[in-house]
Amino acid sequence: MIPAPIKENENVGFHYTVSDEQIKEHQKKTVEEIVNWVESTAKFIYDFQSPGERERMRKNKNFK
Questions:
Q1: Are 44 and 52 spatial neighbours (Cβ–Cβ below 8 Å)?
Q2: C-alpha dist (Å) from residue 26 to 2, 30, 46
Q3: Half-sphere exposure of 6 (CA within 13 A, CB side)
Q4: Global pTM?
Q5: CA 31, CA 28: separation in Å to the nearest integer?
Q6: Which residues of 13-52 are buried (b: 16+ CB within 10 A; e: fewer)?
Q7: Distance between CA 23 and CA 57 in Å, rounded?
Q8: Rg (CA), the chain
Q9: Cβ 64 vs Cβ 2: under 8 Å
């Protein structure tokens, strides 16, 4: 079972536009650079999450 979003986040979405130039720049990166970025972004998000948010994320990642 997927946990419901917290009330203030219901029916809220986001989008992000990526230009062709940004895609070309990304394609120049090494696998190591991309993995480092993913790891640092995950740590950044974790550091700013409350314990409740971490628990919701843990449950979402382990749903079957």
A1: no
A2: 32, 9, 24
A3: 8
A4: 0.57
A5: 10
A6: eeeeeeeeeeeeeeeeeeeeeeeeeeeeeeeeeeeeeeee
A7: 28
A8: 16
A9: no
The answer to whether the beta carbons of residues 20 and 28 sit under 8 Å apart is: no
How far is C-alpha 54 from the geometric centre of its chain's CA atoms?
Answer: 12
**Cβ contacts of residue 60 below 8 Å, gap of 6+?**
2, 3
DSSP state of 61: H
Per-residue pLDDT of the chain (64 residues; tens, 9 = 90+): 556 666 776 677 766 778 899 999 999 999 999 999 999 999 999 999 999 999 988 888 876 5
Residue 19 per-residue DSSP state: -
* Maximal C-alpha separation, the chain: 40
